[in-house]
């Protein structure tokens, strides 16, 4: 029996909806809705949730802290941009959230790839300099979380006598996950992080990146784990799943596609360029590998692909990623509340995960059901 995949879901802090790339059926990212999603996925047996960061997102640390109080087991993979705060401030935030959540914090280190947006955050470094700065940031952050008093003088950052009064629950520190596909990103991931994440490229492209990260880590005597960030559109039949995929982008205008592609073209992110290359901004030929659909990438930056199909087929495709080294899937689907139930109910039984959320209540039959009848 193949090992179970670890399944994460996504908290849509940018907003959610029935039709991507359109205002029709749009759901704002208001907190009660995000809380509903978190409570649902906690029950359904997802191991954790990813919270993105950026100018268009409700603030990830604040949202994660509030959701931690509303959930029991769910882990919070909170995105962190190293250039935006000092390492000492980020270290105090991480230690506090790790304590408040009773050891459920994971960090997703992302340097960002949009120069105009980063300028708004006060970050003016070019691509590779951002990674140099991130390396210095993580050096100070990790040493502080591990209990050291830190004196550090780097090219970008300085800290003297930096230390934590209150330690995190997890030792030596909450795990560092990481997303970035450039050479600079892979060197930093290999050097200082624990889990390397890729967006949902075709299996051979993900395998090639995993090999590069493994080799870079091996040169340092380290080993990483690997995760895949991808959307899922799972229905009882393949025909229903493809119809749901096409419906999702059915309100998208050519102008909306052009605007997203123009924004993506301005990014200096290698990972974004790899995603854009999969569809080239065209509506035809969106199934770029068996069951791998690039339709979301037309109007969504970042993770732009979905596995589409019946439960057996999607499970088999996920197993193909697992065979090249992936052990965690960070999934999502629009709208995130309903699709979390679909993934858990249709797909989890084929992956051997989420057993707890599927506990059956014995025989329910008759108009009020056996249990109801027995008590009424
Ligand atoms: C799984 C995953 C999640 C990401 N989440 C974010 C995010 O929340 N905010 C953000 O600015 N960038 C995010 N990124 C993008 C990284 O910051 C990105 O890869 C960066 O633009 C540098 O790209 P490069 O090393 O591929 O050139 C994410 C990347 C991956 C793979």
TrEMBL record:
Coiled coil: none annotated. InterPro entries: Alkanesulphonate_mOase_FMN-dep, Luciferase-like_dom, Luciferase-like_sf, SsuD_RutA_monooxygenase. One of its GO terms (molecular function) is alkanesulfonate monooxygenase activity. One of its GO terms (biological process) is alkanesulfonate catabolic process. Residues 8-328 form the Luciferase-like domain. It catalyses: an alkanesulfonate + FMNH2 + O2 = an aldehyde + FMN + sulfite + H2O + 2 H(+). Its EC number is 1.14.14.5. It holds the Pfam family Bac_luciferase. Keywords: Flavoprotein, FMN, Monooxygenase, Oxidoreductase. CDD domains: Alkanesulfonate_monoxygenase (cd01094). It is an enzyme of class 1 (oxidoreductase). Catalyzes the desulfonation of aliphatic sulfonates. NCBIfam families: alk_sulf_monoox, PRK00719.1. Belongs to the SsuD family. This is Alkanesulfonate monooxygenase. It comes from Chenggangzhangella methanolivorans. The gene is ssuD.
